[in-house]
Design goal:
Radius of gyration: 39 Å
Strand content: 35-45%
Number of strands: 89
Structural class: mainly beta
Helix content: under 10%
Number of helices: 11
Amino acid sequence: MKFSRLIFLLVVILANSAFTQKIYYVKYKEYVPVSEIKNKLDLSVKSILATDAPLDNSNITIAPFAKGLAARVPELSRIVALKIYNESMAVNISSALRENQNIEYIQESLTYKIDYIPNDSLVNQQWALAKIGAFESWQITEGSDTVIVSIIDTGVDYKHPDLKNKIFINSGEMGKDQQGRDKNSNGVDDDNNGFVDDYMGWDFTDRTGFPFDTTGGDYLDWDNDPMDENLYSHGTAVAGIIGAETNNLTGIAGVAPKIKILNLRSFDPQGYGEEDDVSAAILYSVLMGAKVINMSFGDYSYSHVLRDVVRYAYSKNVVLVGSSGNSNSPNPHYPSGYSEVISVGNSTEEDFVAGSSNYGSTLDLVAPGTQIKTTSRNWSYTDFNGTSAAAPFVTASAAMILSKKAFSNEEVKQILKSTADDIGNPGWDIRAGAGRLNLLRALKVLAPSVIKFNFPFQDYSASNDTLNINATVLSSYFRSFSLEYGSGLNPTSWNILLNNQLNQVSNEVIYSFPIKNLTDTVYTLRLKVEQANSFTAEERVNFRIKRSGTKGELISLLPAYYGDKPTFMAATYTEDPAIVKMYYKRNSESNFQYVTLDGFSTNTGFVKQLHYGFIPRSQIYPSEQYDIYFQVINEGGFVTEIRDTLGRYFTLNSGDLFRTYEKTLKSYTLPAGYIFDKSISLPDSKKGVLMREVMSPEVTKLFRFANNEFTHTATDTLNRKIAKDYGDFNKDGANDLLSLWGYSAHIHKQSNTAGTFQLATSADTSYFWPIGVFDLDRDNKNELLAVRNDTTVVVYGINSDLSLTYKTRFYNQSGMGFGGNTFNSPFMIVKDIDNDGKNEIVFVDSDGDIVVMKVNSINDIRTDKIIRTGYISSSSFISSGDFNNDSKEDIAILLQAVPDVDVAPYNRILIFNFNGNNINFSYDNAFIDPAVEFKSTFQRASNSLKFSDIDGDNKQELLLFTYPYAYVIKSQGIGGEIVSYDENVNTNAILVEDFDANGVPEIAYPFGNIIKFYEFNQVTTFALTVISAYSIDNSKVIINYQGTASKYYIYRGLTEDAIALYDSVSAQNYTDTRVELNKYYFYKVEAISGTRKASSKILKVFHHTPSRFVSSNVKTANSVEVTFSNKMRKEIDNPSGIYLMKGGEKISLSSYTPSGENAFLLTFSSNFNTGQNRVLISGLVDNYGSPVVTDTATFNFTPGVEFQSFFIENFKIIDNYTVSITMNLTIDPATVGNLSNYLFSPDNQVTSASLSGTDTKTIILSLKGAKPVGSLGREYTLTLKNLKSDLASGNVSINSNAGATIVLTSTAANLDDIYTFPSPVDKSKHKSVTFANLPRNVDIIIFNLEGIRIAEFSENDGNGGVDWNLLDSDGREVPSGVYIYRATMTDGKKNELGTKTGKLAIIR
C-alpha cells in the first residue's frame, strides 16, 4: 500500500512540475577573461531582473557548456549555458542580453531530429510511406506491441522474413501442459477460449457443403494453421503494408513497425470466403483483444449476419477498416458500407483518386493503393493494387494513433478524417471523401471528435410518418453544423433541415423529420460540420422509406442434385433489396421450415434483389412430395409471399437417392493431367494413352500400357500439340492423329512398327480450329472440319498423302442469344440420327441453341432443325449414343443457367432423340454447379460428357463429368438414374477403354493429383445408398442405409485401408455397441442378393458423446452466446428450430455466427426483455454429425444505464490571449479555477480561468503571459479534465476526449487583415517569419525591390498562417532588406478570389 501511494505522489509531482525550459548558449568576446564569464552573466541577468538577490535556481541556472567538456577547448571556453524555466522571463532576458556589448552572440538551443530512413532494401520503392508522412511519424511513435491488428483475409505467410516476428502469439497456448506436451499442439483448449491450439491465429475457412478438391488447398474445415495459400498473396500483401518489420536490412518497411498482427484466415486459396467465416473471425478478433480489424474485401449486397457482428465489434470499441471496392461504383459496398466501418478508397502517387476506386456517400477517405510494394508468399515481394492495398494504410495509422493514446473507435475515425489532405473538391467530396490519409498530421494533432448519426443507421427502412434523427456532433474544431437530406444514394441537390446550429450535441434527437409526404425510395441524410480550420466535416447515411411489402418474382424453382443428394433450388427477383426465405415441408408434415436464399452460404440473410439458394441437403428426404412457398422480407419488416398463380403452394417431388453400383479400382494409374479421349493402338495389339501432364502442359506424351502399368519414354512426345482426333484418316491401313495448338491444325502419321507419330500436314492459318475427321457424305472418304471464325465451319477433304483440299463451308444460322451464338469449342456430332441414310451434323452453340444440319451432299449442307433451349452452353457439351438400346441415336447436352436471366448456378442435363421433327426426352435433371463460387486459381473448371456401354448390357450409359463431380447415368427404360458418383474430378475429356483386355472397359477418372481407372461389374437394378452414420450416445454408433437386398454385411476397421467383415444384418440400419469413446472408426456396408453385390463408400465416424447445450452469455441487447459441450457444425441448416420466446410469441433468429468451435452468437430481431429470457434450441448437429438434444437457454438481461454527458457546447477565440468555452450544463465553480484542469499540446498554458459573469455555463480562459492562439499558423490542442457540472445538474464529470478537447486555431474570411510577425525580422534572433490572419487557401510570392521573384509558398491546412524560412527558391539565405509579398486567395481549385500586397523588413 505504501508503494502504490508513493507512485501516485510521484505522478502528481511530475505532472505539476512540467514547466517549459529554454536553453540559451551565450558566448563572450575574446577580451573577456574566461574566469569572469559566469560572474558577468550572473550580474547581467540580475540587472535585467532588477534584483540583487541570488538567482532562483528554480527559475534560472548558469551551467558550463557541454557539461564542462568545452572548457578544455580554447575556442569553446567562452560559451556557457543559460537555462530559464519561465517563458516570459526567457523572452525578456534573451532580448536584453543581445544588446550586451561584451557578448558575441546568444543563441537559443535547437532541437534536432534524425533524418530517419530505415535500412530495408526496398524502402526506396515505397512511395506511399513518404506521401503519408510515415518517416517523420516514426519520430513520434512506431506503434506498440500492445496494439493488436487483426487481418481477416486469405491468411498471412507467417514464415516470411519481414513478417515472422510480427505475428501475435497467444501466450495461453504456449509452453508445456501438465503432461509435458507443447500446448500449441496438444489438442487441448489450454486457455479456454473455445479454440484448440490457437497459438498464432486461426483458419476460419469452412467451405461446408463444397466438394473435396485436392488442388484446392486447405479450405474444408477450421484449424490452427492460417497460412496464406492464395496465388496472389492477398493476405500477406496486406500484412506487409501494415506491419512489415523495419530496419532488418530486408524488403520493405511496414507503416506501424512495432504493432502485432493477428493472423486470421477466412478466405480459401482461390480468394472465396463465406459470411459466417468472416463473422467468426471478427468475433475471434474481439475475443483476443484486437484493437483494429482490417477487412480488404466486400460485396454489394449485405447480410444480417455480418451487419450484426460488425455492430457487436463496434460496441466493443474495435476500429473496423474496410476497402471501398474496385468497380468505380458509387453504390454502397459491404462491409465498408456499414457506418461502423471506415471505408477507404484508392489514391495514386500523384494524389488522384484511382479510376477503379469505388466512391459515394459511404466513403470516408482515400489512401495510397496503386503500385504498392509489399510482401508476398514464399519470401517474395510484389506490387499490390486497389482498395485492398489502400485500407491497410488506414488500419496501420489507426494502430499508430492507439499506440499514443486510448481513443474510442469513432474518435480514431474522425482524427484520420479531420487530418487528411484535401485532394479533391474542397471539404468532403464524393470521390475522395475527407481526403488522402496524412499519418503525420494525425499523430501531431490527435484531436478527438465524434460526428455520427446514431439513428437512422445505414440502410434503415422507415415506414412511420416521422423519422427522429439522433446524432452526435462533438468536434474539436467545431463552429456550427447543419442537417440536410437528398434523394438517392448520392444526391446532387440537398434540402436543408437544420442550418447553422451553433451548439454541439451528444446522442440527441436533433430533428423530427416529417416524411409522410415523401415518396417511397432511397434518401440520404448528411451532417455538415463547419470547422475552425475552414474545413467542412461530413457524415452521411442512406435510408429507405418503405411503407409496404416488397414484390417478388419467382425466376426458377426445380428439383436438383447437389453432389450426391437431392434438393430444391430456387431463384427470385425482388423490386427492392430484401431477404427471401424459402419455406418447405413434406406433404405429410404440418410445420414448415425455411432457408434464406443466400447462394452457397447457409442462412446468412443477404439483403439484395437477386437471390438464389437451395434447401440444405441434410433437410431433404428423397422421393417425397414437398410443398414450397417464399417470403420476401424487406428492411421495414413488411412481408409478402410468393405462391403459384392460384395462391397455392408450389408442389414438387424430390429426387431419388443414388443407387451407386459396385466399381473396381484398377492397380494402374497415370499422373495428373489432361487426357485424350481415345486410346491409341500400338504394335503387338497393345494400347496407349495420350495426355499432357499438369506440370508440362505444352508436351503431349504417349503412355504405353503393358503388364498392368503405363510407361513413357522420352521419344514418345509431341511438343506444343494437343491431340484432337485419331483414326485412319486416309484409309491406308495406318492410323493418323489430328492435333491442334492455338488456332492451327496438324496431322501426324503413326508408325505401324514403333507406334510413334511423324508430322505429315499442317494447316497454319490465322484461324483454323480443328473439330475432327468425319466421312460427312458417306463416300468412304474423310473430311476435316474446322472452325474458321465464330460462326463458320470449313470442310476440307483429306488426300491420300494427308494433305488437305478445301471443299465447302457452312454457318451457324441460329441467331444471336445470351451466349453470343459462337462456336466456343471445336466439337460436333456427325451421325445419322434419324435413320434416313444421311448424316446429320449436330452441335450446340454458346447461347444454348441445338442445331441439326442435314448433309445431303458435300456441297449441300443445310440447317434442318434449331432448338432454342434458353440456356447457355458450349460446343463441347454434347455427345451421342444409344442410351436405352432402342437402335435410335440419343443426344445428350449439358446446359448452363444464363446469369443475365437466372442467377441460380446450375447445369441441366438433357438426353433426347428425334422422331421426325418431334423431340423425345428420356432424361432431364438439374445439377447445382458449385464451380461458380469454388474453382481453383490454378486450373479451369472443366466439363465433359460421353456415352459408353460400361457394364456390358448393350445400353450406353452417360458419363457426366461436371467439375467437381463425376456421375454415371443409366437408362431405366423410361428415364434414368445415377448409379455412380465421385468428387474431385476435373476433365474436359472422358476416356473409356478395356486396357487389361478382361472384357470390361475401364473409365479414366482424373482426380486432382492422379488419374485412376475404374471398371463396373455387370449390374442390374440393384444397389445401396448410405444415408447417415454417427454416434447416438456415448456407447453406440448407428448407420442408416437403403437398399433392396435381403442381407447387409458390415465391415469395420480403425483405418480406411484395414477394414474387415464385422457383422451382418437384414435391417436397413445397424447399431454398433462395441465402440470406444473418442476414437475414429471406418465402416463399409455391402448389400448382397444372390450373386449380385453393391457396396457403399467407406464411412468415417468419430465415436464421441454427442454435444449438448451447456451455457449462455448475453452479449448485447438482442444477442446471446450459447455454448455446447463439444465441437459444433458451423452451419445451422434449420434456423426455424431456434427462437426467442416472448410470452406467447416466437421471435425468429435474425442471424447466427460461430463464436468458437463449440459456440454460436445468436442475434434476434427483437431486444430481450428485462429479467429472464428463454431461447429454444433445436435441430442442431455437432461437428461429427450427431444430433444435439433439444434444450432451452435461460438467461437474465439487464439493460445498460444511460448517463448524462457533460461536454463543450461551443467555444470561441475572443482574441489571441482569450478563449471562451461554453458547456452544455451549468458548471461547478469550484472546478473552474484549477489551472491544472487545462492541458495544452504543444506546450502552452492557461494563466487564469473564471466563469463568465452570470453565465454559469461559460468559462473565460486567459493565456496572457503565454503563447497567443488564433490565425497564426499554429494549432494548439486544449483538453479539459476534472471539470464537473453543478449539483443541480447531477455533478456530472466532463467527457473524456471528444467533447472535452478543442483545437485553438482559426482562419480569416479574407486577406484584409493579413500581417507578418515578428516585424521587422531580426535574422540573428529568428529563423522564420509568420504570415498570419490568412484564409484557408493562400498562395504567397516574395519579391525583392527589383521585382525579382525570390520565393513562393502556400497555406492550405486551415490554421490561419504559414511560415517563410527566409530562404530563396534555391535554398539560400536571403540578405537583409525590404521585400514585397503578394498574397492570393483561391477557392481550392486555384481560382483567384482576391489579392493583397505588402512589405516586410529583414534586418540583422
